[in-house]
Amino acid sequence: MSVVAGLALTPIPAQAAPVGTGTIEGTLTTAKGDPVAGVRVQLSSSAGHNDTLPLVFTDEAGHYSAAPLPAGRYRVGFYFPETMSTQWVPRAARESAATWFTVADGRTTVVDESLFATGGLDVTLVEPDTGPVQEFCVEAIGDLYLKTGCTTTGTVSLTGLPIGSYLVTATGGTGEGVKMAFADVVEDSVVPVEIQPW
């Protein structure tokens, strides 16, 4: 009798409720509203397991659609390998400053974004004894941004840099070591930067 009673009182393990899925979609544009194609969408889930989320890129119209996504909260970013940077929504350089978006079962959450305004740098290297250098390489390092380039013609043109301040370093020419200068990238402008050894 007591055995039967013991079995009757044994709790049945609760079954985990199935998690529904939804979609995040939107459009990525430049600061002036033009579509941006071929950019990888970076999704970050509050539940973790980000490596299991779908790999998505913007199409020719700048549109993207990420599905199926387990219901929950997500941050959305756009990764740029040229500058080794991610722009998080809304216009944040760091993920910690990004907004959480909720995905609900059977629903579509729209997340549009426009890129930071950009400009460019035209970098030249001048040696004190020999003048302009034809062959050299540069790195432009900004707040979470990095872009590189090399030249054999005397000028490295770096385009698509988010506006802000950059440390520009150059290697090449005569002598050893790295030469550097500071420059500000201005919206829709190409700023000339002449680097001379210190």
Can you walk through the features of this model?
With 198 residues, the protein is mainly β. It has 2 domains: 21-114, Immunoglobulins (Immunoglobulin-like, Sandwich), CATH 2.60.40.10; 118-195, Immunoglobulin-like, CATH 2.60.40. It is 4% helix and 51% strand. The chain has 1 helix and 17 strands. It has one helix spanning 2-9; strands at residues 21-29, 40-45, 56-57, 63-70, 72-80, 85-88, 101-103, 108-110, 113-114, 118-127, 131-132, 136-142, 145-151, 156-162, 164-172, 179-185, 190-195. Strands 2, 3, 5, 6 and 7 form a 5-stranded antiparallel beta sheet that branches. Strands 1, 4, 8 and 9 form a 4-stranded mixed beta sheet that branches. Strands 10, 11, 14 and 17 form a 4-stranded mixed beta sheet that branches. Strand 15 (164-172) and strand 16 (179-185) form a beta hairpin. The protein starts with a helix and ends with a strand.
